[in-house]
Amino acid sequence: MIEMRNVSKYYEIGKAHALKGINLKFEDRKFYVIAGPSGSGKTTLLNIISGIEKPTKGTVIVDGKNIFKMKEKELRKFRLENIGLIFQFFYLIPYFTALENIMLPIRYSKDKKDIEKRAMKILNIVNGEHLKDKMPIHMSGGEMQRVAIARALANNPKYLIGDEPTANLDWENKMKIWNTLKEANRRGITVIVATHEREFFEYGDYLIYLKDGVIQSVSQSNHKKD
Question: Could you tell me the pTM of the whole model?
């Protein structure tokens, strides 16, 4: 479980309060959608729960550990082993094939056995086996995002965190990506995704709505899981 206790984030540059006294719990094996307008604090919230940014105030507990009391090396290791990150702009290494991009985080994990075989298995999970030898420059946006999700899943994370992962895709690819996220959740992974796209607000189990760095509401979705 991830727990945010009275978390605030203030940026000196711009004199902006991105988050103001956030208290949230993310339970294991659930699917959370974080919504809100641009500038509401969605990205900052995701960066803090994944350990990328430190809060100005407050505590983040992940599986009983205060992650910001960890040393930097310990935090990087914890993130590598427990958290998979999906970004809006893919961030694939341009001179690596799809398979090589997925293999990269496995190379830094504690279990380095059968790296290529494991990477290929994950690529199959996102229906991207045909992309194995493709370079990012030869992929569509939807294909790159599938590879990015496979890379995020490479070390079998407990938490999968996505920041606007379908913002730059067409409708068909948006649906493919959201269904891939749903499938990851079915496999037991806790999924936390920020989006401004209303079509997906009730795609998960819970919808968290942010505005001006404050939680406006937390509601249970009305969808029925397949």
Answer: 0.90
